[in-house]
Structure formats: structure tokens, C-alpha cells
Amino acid sequence: MHVKKYWRLILLATVIVFSVGVYYVQAKIAADRFPDFAIRKVSGDEREAEPIYIDGFYNEGNKEETLWIRAGGSEYWRQRSYFDRLEGGNFISFTKHLQKKYRNFMRGKEENDAYYFEDRDFVGYAAIETNLLRGFEPTDFAFTVACLDKKRKDTVSFRLPVPDRERYTMVYVEKVHVMNGVMKVITTNQSYNSNSIESHVYTIDWKRKKMLSDETVFSVSQKNGEMLVYPVSFDRTKLDRYVVFSKRSLEEVPEKDGEGDITTQEKTVELAAYDLETGERKKIGLPEKNVAEAEPALVSGSTLYFQKLAENGIQIIAYDLEKGKIISDRVFAVPRSERDSSLRDSKIKLTNEKIYVAVPDTDAKTGKILIGDLKSGKTLYEGRIAAKEGEDLPKGYRITLLDLNVEGSF
Amino acid sequence: MNKYLKLLNFELNRFFKIYLVLIVLTVVLQMTAVIVECRQYLKQANEMIYGMNASKEQFLADYGQMSFVHIVTNGWFMWSIAICAVTLIIYVFFIWYRDWFARNTFAYRLLTLPTDRINVYLAKATAIFLMVLGLISLQLILFPVEQGIFRAMIPDDFRQDLSTADIITFSKYLTVLFPGTLIEFVARYGAGLMVVLVLFTAILFERCYRFRGIFFGAGYCALAAGIFLSPILIEMFTEKVYLYPIERFFAEVALGLFVSGMSIFISRFLLNYKIRV
Amino acid sequence: MIEVKNIKKKFGRKQVLKGVSFTAKKGEITCLIGVNGVGKTTILKAIMGLTPYYGGEILINGKRINKAAYEKITFIPDAFIMPSSMKISEAMAFMKDFYAGWNEERARELLEFFRLKEEDRIANLSKGNVAKVNLLLGLALDADFVLMDEPFSGIDIFTREQIAEVFTSHLIEDRGVIITTHEINDIEHLIDKAVLLDEGIVVKEFAVEEIREREGKSVVDVMREVYRP
After folding, report:
1. Interchain proximity B240–A129, CB inside 8 Å
2. Interior CA angle at A245 toward A239 and A246, to 5°?
3. For site-directed labelling of B222, which of B175, C116, C174, C184 has its Cα 20 to 30 A away?
4. Model-level pTM?
5. What's the rounded Cα separation, in Å, for the pair B207 and B120?
6. Which residues cross the membrane (chain B) (predicted)?
């Protein structure tokens, strides 16, 4: 080829390939230059920390990036490949786990862990699917129900209107449970005219595609101050028979030593246990005043755990639903130093009979991890979130802990 | 192949003067942006520190450090990019119409060259594509130069040094031109090439059927958009997200290739049998 | 041989060509004659594949037009067809670049004959000189057929003489030429065959020599018979 004649073309092509190539190589190098954080053991069994997944945020001046910290190291958004990024940020969710196992059944279903159920035989799904074009139409509320029979590889899928749907402005699906040939769908509904919030349990015969019943567990009016009703968290993998509904009041109180600052204080007013197997409902009177101030945090088997911030750690109160009494009241001590910030910023996760706590330090450069056994009250693991040794740390960097997840439990 | 390269080279040479003007304009506007932004920041610092006796720390607490992101969001800088973008968009049309409506009807010659006529179409498309990427490369080369000036003008303590990738990410709008990963870059500019091929086909519809052709061309653009966006449109109308993100990506790649192939096929037909000079 | 068989063409609702047929042989100068707007230029464009037609077909040496044929047939339209920013030398280089049949020697000869300067920009040329460059670029190709659209219109008398001279020279000799005109006088003595067009059809196709010898008529005489009933 005549180089002289084509010099513009050759020059242009060379410059393009070279500059774009160099840029993306440099971008990769720059992405890898973010400091690597890890969770380091202080005491206990380091295997306990392996399933921890901390969602966080790194910033340095106006440079900021989402990151995930695990025991072995961290990963930043920018370090992920394009195809990984496509999967979104929440990659250890229950939905993602089901998508991997039942790719076709999960196709076209909304991504929200609350809408799914899985046991040995079935995968269940119930959702109020959002209408992208029209938005919500109050009279439109309908459950989209689907059930996969794992053994027969059989899928049932249908739509069922929400009973009395014209009464509601919002219907949130909170939990789905398949048992004894029926599907129980637990929802929180906002009613249209009386400005009240209700907890419902819908029973659906998914084989005959019929609504069997609609029970209202709690109904609170917002007229006498702010009230909340919601089902207490549970372990999705455990398939427990009890669902506990909590009714709580929100009160605005002036801060003790603040300058007129107002904080909201939540109080548990009433609890109700719903037995998914028998359909029995049992109201639970609140045992003691100090329990009322604690937050109902997890139902596990027949135990309801309350959590509350204490002076030197996290207080966990275990309440037996069947016996109707408190069976233990313990404080999981978080080791503290003068650098510590308030425990209020800590991320707490109760799951799998364990408590996981991540506490950021005041300087927002490091943090602490605590893992405790809920049953025995023993501390299983203590660790620190910190940049790996030998990392070249820039001045003024900060990490923010946003969420704590435990892989394998949802 | 050989004639295609000759045509491509010819098209590039034809645009070269305007291209040089664009390059010079970009350099001048962006250098202006660097100097204007830096001076403004330094003026503020001087007024605070010398005029109002504030300490350096106090100034930094109020105004923060200067970063290159301030420069790329400056009006002069954004104008340079806008001018290049608009010029090239206009040239997508001009590259064809100049051969019919300039003082001399070069289309007579181009269409009677002893080569497949589709080579003319492909050469014009490639020329546009290379000119776009050329300006993208110019920007990538200019960044380090401009950062050098920025570092020379602003003292260390007042400056936050960022990598080019950081600057692009934090500017928000530059990520449109320089996406985060190479795969996205290839996908985005590939889609851009597809759009050029579709527009060329629409232009050829107009050149073949004149007034009626405008409607055919617009219809063709709508059809191409409909096919390319069909996975998203189907999801919008059925209100269900059927495809996983990775599947949607590959579906779009396949549809993009299909639309490009269809445009080339139709244009080949129009050029061979329907064109009017 | 160029065979035009029954081609039809509409512009909007107006049927311009209603089935035109004629042939043009190598070594002959065939002249398409008709008033302005009769579709002479359209026929040349149709032969070159620059405008669609329907009905029949056009064959060049027995084949439909294709990319190889563009080495064998060249079109010299009324308008100039190279970008006006080019110099004559650049236009020549372009042709040399794309056509295997470019004859540089003949191009130089024509350049000299027309007294054109290579370094002149096309934008600055007079209408007459533009016509000359057009002719130069067309005739410097080793093509079997040359189509010329109104080569004598709108140019000065001296240029016309020069161009007419080309027709009788070795530059044309054994090629086939199709030429259009609405003004027959200048070239009557040059042409071998006349094709008279009217109302979208060929009203008469005849060999000039033959009709002169047999019936003692000139082309203009025949035109009078045909166009003035």
C-alpha cells in the first residue's frame, strides 16, 4: 500500500487504537489503585467472618465509589467487569440465588426477596407487579401468583385480584409461604379513606387458583399519632411456622441533652403471633417495659428476639412465643475505645441464630465486627475492618458502612 | 477492498480541512477553559487570603480544593464538545448531499466508478465513524496535556489530582462519550455506527424517491428503531421484564447487527437499482 | 453494442419515455435528437444506471450494466462532475487511481490539445474549459463507449470547433459514441446515425449516410418531415 497516499487514514486509525487502548488500560490501573479493605480477626474463629458481606461507600474528596468488604478483601464497583455490573449491586440476595437455580421460572418476575418462598418441594412467588406505563391504579391491585413444583417441574401461574382492593392506596407483599397445599401471602396495606395501615394474611389455593381467605391481623388508624405495623424479620431458609406482627408507636421526643433537637422514639405496643400451619392468631401482651423500647428483630423457631442499644453493646432479649415469657436477656459487648462513634451507626443483622454487628469508628477509616451466638450468648468472633497492610492510603479517605449481609442466609 | 480503502481515504481527505478547524477549535476552547477556571479559583484564593486575611485552611474549608472536574464542567469546555458533535451530525447528511447539490454533481462520477456502489456507502460511513473516534482520541490525548497546565497553575495544597478516568466519572456527562469499560465503549460506538448506517439508508430513500422518499426514510428509521429497541418496547407494553440483563445485552448486540445488515442490504438495492442523479 | 429495448419512465404522473428502443454500435456516432424535455438525458442516465426505468432492459455488449462495465462505458454529462475544489491534476490523479483503463498518455495529449493548465483549480475555469476538462477525463479512458450529453451547449464558438475536431480525430475513431443534442447543425456532418425522439418514443432511427445517398435528404430534412406534419 502507498503509505504516503494513505497517511491520514493510517495516522487516524493508529491514534484511535492507541489512545483508546491506553485510556482503558490506565482506567483499569486507576481502578485497582483504590485501597483494599479486609476484615481482620482479633479473636475467635475466623471462619465465622467468611460469609459477611459489607456494603459500603468509599470517598476521598469528591472521589467516591461503592465497595463491598469481605473477610478476604474488598471489591469496588469500578473493578467489576461490565457483565458483573449488569447484574446490579445486590448479588447475594435470595432473588439472585433463586435466579441462578430456576432461571426460567424466575424470568419476568420482580426482584424483591419478600416475594419469594422456597422449600424442598416448591418455589412460590406472589407480588403486586408494578405497571411501568400506567403506574399504580388503586382498583388494579392483583396478586401475580406463581408456584413451581420442583419434582414435577410444573409451573402454575395466574393473577388474582386483591379482595376489597378499591379500599387501598398501597399493598406491599411482605412474606410468602407455601404449606399444606396453600399459599399464605402476608401484606401491609394502606387504606384509602381512613388513613389506616393494616396487616393482612391472604390464603390462596394455588392449585385451584382461588382466594380462600383474607384475615386482618392488625389495623391501626393514624389518627392518634404515628403507628407502624409490620411482620418481624425471619430466616427465609428456616421455614418457621410463626409469623410475628408488631404494632409500634412513633413518638417525637426532645433529645435529653440536645439543644431542642427532636428524635423519634419507637415503642412496641402490641405483638401478634400467627401460626402458618393452623391459621391461629395469638395476641401477645408486652411482658415488660424495657422490652417495649427494644425492637423486635428476628423470629427463629418459637423464639422472638428483641434488640436494643445498650451502653457497652447490643442488648438481645429472647422471648419464647409458646411459653409466653422471656428466656434470656443478654448484652453482646462491643469492644470500645475513645475513638468510637455512637453505636447508633452500627449495622446489626440477626440471622441463623447469630448476631452480626458492624460498628464504624469515629474517624470513618476503620470499623469493628462482632459475631455472637444468640442461644448461648457467647462471642464467636471479634474483628476489625481496616485497609490491608502495606496499602498506600490517601489522606482524608473515608468509608461508610451501609449494610451488613450474611451470605447464605436471607 | 482496495477501492473501498481508496474511497475511504478520499472521503477523509475531503473533510480534512474542516476537521483541522475542529481540532484547532477544540484545543483553543479547552485551553481557554483551563486558564479561565484556574485564574478564577486563584483570584478567589487571593482575595480571601490576602484581601480578607483568611488562613489557607479557612479558604480550603469554604471553597474546597480545585479539581479538574471544575474545568470539564466549564462552559468553554462543553462548547468545544458540543460544536464537534453538531458538526459531525450535520456532516452525516452533508457527506451525501454535497455530491448532488454542490456546484458540481460528483455523484455522477462516484456512482459510475468501476466498483460496487455499496463501497461508496461503506466508505462514507467508515469516514464518519473514524472522524468521530478521532475526536474522541483527541480528547483523550488533550486530557493529560490540560492536566499538566492545571498542575502548573494551581499550587499543590489547593489541588486535588484525579486520574482521567476519575475526571470522566465525576463529570457525569463525559461518561456518555467515555463509558466505564471497553466492552461498553465498543458497544456504544458500534450502536453509533448502526445509527449512521440507518440514517444513510434514510438519506438514500430520499435520494431515490425524493419527496415521497422523505416519508420512506422516516418510516425506515422508525422501523429500525422499533427492531433495535424491541426487547425494551415489549417489556414496556407487556409490563414484564422477560430478559435477564446479560441476555438483553446480547439480544441488543444481535439486533444491532441485524439492523446494520438490513441497512446495508437495502442501501445496496437502492444504490444499484433505484438511485437517481 | 448498446441495446436499448423498450424502456419506460415516468416522472410523477408524466410518462416521459413510453418504450424507447434503439441500438448504438461501436465505431459509430449515434445522435439522440429531440426537443428539450423529451428525455434524451434520461436515456443516457438510464444507460449508465443513474436513474431507474421499467418495462424493458438495456444491454451493453449483451449484459446489463455492472461494475466492470464502467471501465467500458463512460459518461460526459452537461454538468461538471468532479469536486470544484480539485485541481485538474488532482482530477486526473483521481481517475488514474480508480480506473484501470486510464490512459495517461492520451490524457497528456488532450491537455495539450485543449491548452489546459494542470495546476488550475476547477472552480476557476470558464464554462468552455470545464467542458474541455470533462471531455479530457472521459476520453482519456480506454472505454468502448462514450456518452455525451449536449457537449456543444452554452459554449463559445472556438471551443465548439476544438471539440468538433476531437470527433474526427483518432481519439474517437473506433469507439461507439452516443451524443444528445437539440441543435443538430453543428454536428450533422459528424454523426453516423440519428435517433429522432418525440412524445416519449423513437419516431425514426436511420443511418445518415444511407438516407443521404438513397433519398438525397439531410438529417434536417428528415427532422422536418417528422416534427412538422
Report:
1. yes
2. 135
3. B175
4. 0.89
5. 14
6. 16-36, 76-97, 118-143, 186-205, 217-237, 249-271
Using the beta-carbon criterion (under 8 Å), do A107 and B244 form an inter-chain contact? yes
Residue located via cell numbers 480550603: B60
- Across the interface, which of C68, C74, C81 has its CB nearest the CB of B105? C81
Full residue range of the structural domain in which residue C166 is found = 2-227
8-state DSSP, A35: P
Contact: B181, A31; criterion CB under 8 Å: no
- Terminus-to-terminus CA distance in chain A, angstroms? 64
Min Cα–Cα distance to chain B from C222, Å? 33
The 10s digit of each residue's pLDDT in C42-94 is 999 999 999 999 999 999 999 999 999 999 999 998 877 888 889 999 999 99
Q: Please indicate whether, in this complex, the C-beta atoms of C50 and B274 are within 8 angstroms of each other.
A: no
Complex-level ipTM? 0.91
| Cβ atoms < 10 Å from Cβ of A410 | 20
**Nearest CB partner across the interface for A19, out of B137, B184, B243:** B137
Q: Are residues B183 and B67 part of one domain? A: no
Q: What cell was used for A57?
A: 461507600
SS3 A33: coil
Is residue A220 situated within a structural domain?
Answer: no
User: Which of residues B171, B194, B209 is at a domain's end?
Assistant: B171
* C213 to chain B, closest Cα gap in Å: 39
**Do B163 and B191 lie in a common domain?**
no
User: Residue A361 forms beta bridges with which residues?
Assistant: A340
| Domain around B196 | 179-277
In this predicted model, which residue has the larger pLDDT, A94 or A5? Answer: A94
Other C-beta atoms closer than 10 Å to the C-beta of A338 total: 5
Structural domain count, chain C: 1
Q: Which of C52, C71, C82 shows the shortest C-beta gap to B109?
A: C82
Please tell me the total number of residues recorded for chain B in this structure: 277
